[in-house]
Design goal:
Elements: E1 11-17, E2 21-28, H1 40-43, H2 54-65, H3 70-80, H4 91-103, H5 109-123, E3 128-133, E4 139-145, H6 147-156, E5 159-162, E6 175-181, E7 187-195, H7 200-213, E8 221-224, H8 228-237, E9 242-245, H9 247-257, H10 259-264, H11 268-277, H12 282-296, H13 302-309, H14 331-343, H15 350-377, H16 387-392, H17 398-411, E10 415-420, E11 424-429, E12 441-448, E13 453-456, H18 460-464, H19 469-477, H20 498-501, H21 504-507, H22 515-536, H23 540-563, H24 579-582, H25 611-614, H26 634-680, H27 684-687, H28 689-696, H29 708-717
Parallel strand pairs: 5-8, 8-9
Antiparallel strand pairs: 1-2, 3-4, 4-7, 5-6, 6-7, 10-11, 11-12, 12-13
Helix pairs in contact: 2-4, 3-4, 5-15, 7-8, 11-12, 17-19, 22-23, 26-29
């Protein structure tokens, strides 16, 4: 705010007296202007009147942590204070408080983050984090996972989606979360990391660190995009895992490369999708692909050749026998990435980023708890009195049962037919109201009543963990009223997360020698020994007693271990490193990371555009070649080239003309300067007294008057 001086005589004079006391010696309160202090709505604009209390600043920080912007924070505080006129600060002051809070982490961003991790580990003993730094001490990678995420992975870690996202922090470090699916079909976290760059070595470090955090349990299935660095790292760290590329990315790339075919061949896109999604076996997929190429004469298409060469990494026919929780894409990762960007921006520090991610994860766990409560207290609505539906609603969660009810509805579309008595059935779906272009499809269901097996060639149970609609209609024909136990997966049951909620000291006493149980026991004992060490180190008597007891205890435990040495761990995996090994990098002097030059680095902000500017510009028609866009016409391209050549020739002529004129001006100025100085040093007697006086004294203000030397200097400067 700017003010105009009015020469006001109001003033106050103070002086320091004995005793260190300031005393007002003179005071004049007569003003010659309007006083803003008389108006409460105006005086808050004065710098001397603006102030923020400690309570206001803390409220601003708390609301900013919950992703509330400065303007909304100012509105909220104005409501608390009874109106905007009672607020003694501006929205800019709120932004300054937020900025000052962020500046506290300049240069100590990583140190603050590690301190935050250490505090979380004090509360959650299973919290895991690891830091990797380069030779100069600059942080390269940061990984962390909560104890509950580690326990959840043991129950629901059969399928993992992995993808990276950008513009989530001020260092442009890509965020790499590990996402899974719980028993409520909700997305959950298995840990996340910040990487400096996306190459094979960095992904190898991340996957190996994540594997250690997950107690050495390898994932069965992992879904990623088409990044070659991810593929190479997965082949190194997870050689036995089923790696599938995101089908959505594959089809998007196909639309980009085959866009012209989609326009020329109206039925090609639908048939391509039918070949990919409706082929039940590998042989049928290959035959349908060859038939499609023959029909449209596309054997020489480069992109279709590339798709078919990599078909084993993305085509559904190659993955129907594997459990994918009905996922074919990285959509869950993309959804989580979109959620992250609602909370963080490209200006967020790592410490603030971690704190906000903690809030997101806490909300996700709270959502799971709410769904557990609803499953326990609410009875789901039944669609029919089908015995299998009544049996399913007792064991499945609400979301899993909703998916099962949809399969019950779909079973009404099938027409079953017995091919071989009590062993082979054929189910034909002639029409489907959910699809506009539906072609009749026939499925085969093999039955073994004694073993309770109902196997369909669609592999629906193997893919999603729920019996398919074709098997359900055959079970109904054979009078089966209860779902066989081997067709009920524990991951879809109501108590599937019981192990996740159990405290670590309880799970440590479970019978078994798996690597996870060994780590639970090690952590439990370590916590007890830390307390014992603190107490025993205070005096010599306690130390001697504890040391003697430990010697006896070690001998007894060694004897028990030798007797049961024949028992081996069930899960063979990479041994879990100790806390000291994990924190070896963290104990070094670490520096904040530099700005990463990744694929998704920050873009320059574009100026705001109106709707008319955002609208696509229509290309003009070419009259000569009748092409849709004038820019693609070869005739117009030749004309544009010739026009550019003429422009360059004219530009060259103009530059040459300017150069000649410039040279002439310089010569003229130089010649005039020489004449001026020669006239100064000539004798007056040579040309007469009259000429000397005319030139150097002047006779007026006309062309002959004035100081000629000064005028010439002015011309020269011009």
């Amino acid at each position: 705010m700017s003010f105009t001086r009015t020469g006001c005589k109001a003033y106050m004079r103070v002086k320091l007296v004995d005793g260190g006391i300031w005393r007002v010696s003179r005071f004049n309160d007569e003003h010659n202007h309007l006083m803003l202090l008389d108006s409460p709505s105006k005086k808050r604009g004065l710098r001397s009147q603006r102030c923020l209390t400690m309570e206001d600043k803390q409220t601003i920080r708390d609301l900013n942590d919950q992703n509330v912007g400065p303007s909304k924070i100012a509105q909220y505080l104005s409501i608390l204070k009874g109106g905007r006129q009672n607020v003694l600060f501006r929205t800019k002051d709120v932004s300054n408080v937020i900025g000052a809070e962020n500046k506290k982490y300049l240069g100590v961003d990583v140190d603050s983050t590690l301190l935050h991790f250490q505090k979380k580990k004090e509360v959650d003993s299973e919290f895991f984090y690891a830091v990797d730094a380069d030779e100069d001490g600059f942080v390269r990678h940061i990984f962390w996972a909560e104890g509950r995420s580690r326990r959840a992975y043991l129950e629901f870690g059969d399928v993992v989606t992995f993808d990276t996202t950008y513009n989530t922090n001020k260092y442009s470090m890509p965020l790499a979360p590990f996402i899974g699916v719980n028993h409520h079909r909700q997305s959950i976290f298995f840990g996340m990391a910040l990487l400096r760059s996306e190459n094979t070595n960095n992904f190898v470090w991340l996957f190996e660190t994540w594997l250690k955090a997950m107690y050495g349990k390898h994932p069965r299935v992992i879904i990623t995009d088409q990044d070659p660095a991810m593929r190479n790292a997965i082949e190194i760290v997870f050689p036995d895992a089923v790696h599938r590329r995101c089908q959505w990315h594959v089809m998007r790339k196909a639309r980009e490369k085959l866009g012209s075919l989609y326009g020329k061949l109206p039925t090609f896109a639908g048939e391509l999708g039918s070949v990919i999604n409706c082929s039940l076996t590998v042989s049928k997929f290959q035959d349908a692909w060859t038939t499609m190429l023959d029909k449209y004469e596309l054997h020489d298409n480069r992109h279709l050749k590339n798709m078919f060469a990599k078909r084993e990494k993305w085509a559904p026919a190659y993955f129907r026998g594997f459990f994918f929780v009905e996922m074919t894409t990285t959509q869950r990762s993309e959804s989580m990435n979109a959620l992250f960007k609602m909370w963080v921006t490209s200006r967020t520090s790592i410490y603030k980023f971690v704190c906000k991610i903690d809030n997101i994860i806490e909300n996700i766990w709270q959502t799971e708890g709410d769904e557990d409560m609803r499953t326990m207290n609410e009875e789901p609505q039944l669609e029919s009195k089908f015995p299998l539906e009544l049996d399913a609603h007792r064991v499945y969660t609400r979301k899993a049962f909703s998916a099962f009810k949809e399969l019950i509805k779909d079973s009404s579309l099938g027409v079953p037919k017995e091919i071989e008595r009590d062993t082979l059935y054929e189910v034909t779906i002639k029409s489907n109201p959910y699809f506009k272009h539906w072609r009749p499809v026939t499925y085969l269901v093999k039955v073994d009543k004694e073993a309770g097996l109902f196997s369909c060639n669609c592999k629906g149970f193997e893919f999603d963990g729920l019996l398919c609609s074709h098997a359900l209609i055959v079970m109904w024909m054979n009078g089966v009223e209860h779902i066989p136990a081997h067709y009920i997966l524990n991951r879809w049951c109501r108590n599937a997360n019981a192990g996740v909620k159990r405290p670590m000291n309880e799970r440590s006493r479970d019978v078994g020698n798996t690597l996870a149980l060994q780590m639970f026991r090690a952590t439990t004992l370590k916590n007890q020994f830390n307390l014992l060490v603190d107490l025993a180190s205070k005096d010599v008597q306690s130390f001697n007693k504890v040391e003697a007891k430990l010697r006896e205890l070690v001998a007894e435990v060694q004897l028990v271990h030798n007797e049961s040495s024949s028992q081996k761990p069930v899960c063979e995996a990479t041994p879990m490193s100790t806390d000291d090994e994990v924190m070896k990098q963290a104990t070094k002097v670490l520096h904040d990371p530099p700005i990463s030059k990744c694929k998704g680095r920050k873009k320059r902000p574009e100026r705001w555009k109106i709707a008319a500017e955002k609208a696509p510009i229509k290309g003009r028609m070419c009259r000569k070649k009748k092409m849709k866009e004038r820019g693609r016409c070869p005739v117009m391209e030749v004309a544009a080239v010739s026009l550019m050549e003429r422009i360059l020739v004219e530009k060259k002529k103009i530059l040459e003309k300017i150069s000649v004129e410039k040279k002439m001006i310089v010569d003229r100025v130089t010649k005039k300067r020489v004449n001026n100085f020669s006239s100064i040093f000539e004798s007056p007697e040579d040309d007469g007294d009259e000429r000397w006086e005319d030139e150097h004294q002047g006779k007026g203000s006309g062309e002959g008057g004035g100081n000629k030397i000064e005028r010439d200097r002015g011309d020269e400067s011009q």
